[in-house]
Amino acid sequence: MRQSAAQALGELKSTQAFPALVELLQDPEEEVLEDAILALGQLGQAEAAQHLLPLLKDRRASIRRSVAQALGELGTLEAIPLLEGLLTDYRDIDVRQSAAAALVQLSPAKAEERLKQLLKDPDSQMIQYALAELDALDSLQTVKPLVELLLYPDTPYSNPFPEETMYGQVTTALANLSLLKPDAARQAHQLQHLHTQATRLNPQQRETAATELGQIVSPQSVELLLTLLKDNHPAVKHQVLLSLKRLGELHPHLILPARPALQALTAEDQKTTSLVQKVLQKIEAVTPQTPNTNLALEQLKQIALNPQERLTTRSSAIKLLGKLGTADVANTLMTIADNLMKEVKIEANSKPNSGTTQPKPSVAPLLLFATYRALGNTTSSETTLSFLDSQLQQLADHKQTWRDKGRNKRWNYSQSELELGYAIARLNQNRGIELLSHDLAQVRKGAELALGRLVNVELLRKLTQLRSSNPPAGLYDAFFQQASLQTINNLLTTLADKGGVKELTALEKWLPDVSDAVVKERVAWTVGVLGNKVAP
């Protein structure tokens, strides 16, 4: 009964509930006390902190955990030293994680410093938690310690999970940092839609726009939120503050431009005043340091180029470099591929092993296809495309040498063939069409996959036309006929999944002119699927 009362008082979110909740802090029942603590956090009254701080030393883990969560919600800055102490509370992992989460809310800069230290924690779960929180902070200042985890993998962790899991987490965290390119086209489309929503007469639509803007990590989203902050409707203004608070928790540097508007804001009630103060606290916690992104990039290059580095580390670094996608990165990746191709040549020309001992396996097959995949993610340029064409010719020549030797050894580069085909087709559509006639089956398959993932009706029409007429000079007709049909099938599957009204209209207009019976049947099926999908 008392537990239900504590929950109900918290849900009321009324200042009148405050004395009753403070009284419940003396309750001997653990569940009642826990709910009272959480309810005080939800209530948002700063004076609750003086009643909660002593409970951080309670012998019960659930109470310490709940107090940490409540203090984070209240924005109690004086709790920071005590919360830092809870990070070493090895009696309970949940208490430590709640303390870390509260620190992130109260001071992202302080939390970031402590989370970096937790990357060397003896508890594997805390390492995993710290990685996730650093990833969420999205601060470029976290790049260096994460890269160092890759550079110095022999740091004495007492973690029971495989090191590959650790490297996967580290590289995922790195890949999600704002150092990497966001999907600019999708983000621009979202912002354009929300800009329209933000000017609607209906306040509910403006409130929804404010909510969604809090999910987009972009200076433009902050600009729109500041425009909505001038809204006369209280619910809209409140949601704007919540969205700014959320962005400030994860990306404090992003909301710096909001400081003048927040300081000048005249709050109508205590609840709004408290929320404004919390957002300003996020801004005040921002450190003025400018992270050195070039340092992180150079470290990644060193890892990728170092033949003495362990395989999983190099492979992860190569993958990250591909996501960066700059011309400078492409040059590094091309250097790696060139060096690896020398190993391919040696393998192709070597004699089969006749002894009882097996030769040490080469890392070249695994690294080469990872490098080609990374190059496919870089910005398209004539230099990159010409390099990949050259690599493809060399790989084909080495495979022919391997065949001439009698195939007494295994050919380890089929995946590299596929990745080369995929990368070239992804960078240049016309070159990808030519690869549909390549004499290496895996190269054709790579081109099929890359072209087939495009939402492109014009490409579909072009391939259908090429199939029904004489193929371009140099194309092997049998290979092209089979590979182009598979690509058409892939394209139609992609259109059925990702197409919209525009693609449906284009397919309906083209359908009567399709002369290839097999293709026509598949187009008609796609039109039916899309029609059902976009129907109002």
Helices and strands, in N-to-C order?
A: HHHHHHHHHHHHHHHHHHHHHHHHHHHHH
Judged by helices, strands and strand pairing, the structural class is: mainly alpha
Major sheet description: none
| Mean pLDDT score | 77
Tally of distinct domains: 4
Number of strands: 0
The CATH superfamily title of the largest domain: Leucine-rich Repeat Variant
The radius of gyration is 29 Å
Q: What is the CATH-assigned architecture of the largest domain? A: Alpha Horseshoe
Shape: globular
As a percent range, the share of helical residues equals 55-70%
Explain what the structure shows.
There is one protein chain. The N terminus is likely disordered. The protein folds into four domains: 174 residues, Leucine-rich Repeat Variant, CATH 1.25.10.10; 98 residues, Alpha Horseshoe (Leucine-rich Repeat Variant); 119 residues; 81 residues, no CATH class. The protein contains 29 helices and no strands. 69% of the residues lie in helices and 0% in strands. The protein is mostly helical and 536 residues long. It starts with a helix and ends with a helix. Helix 19 packs parallel to helix 21 and helix 28 runs antiparallel to helix 29.
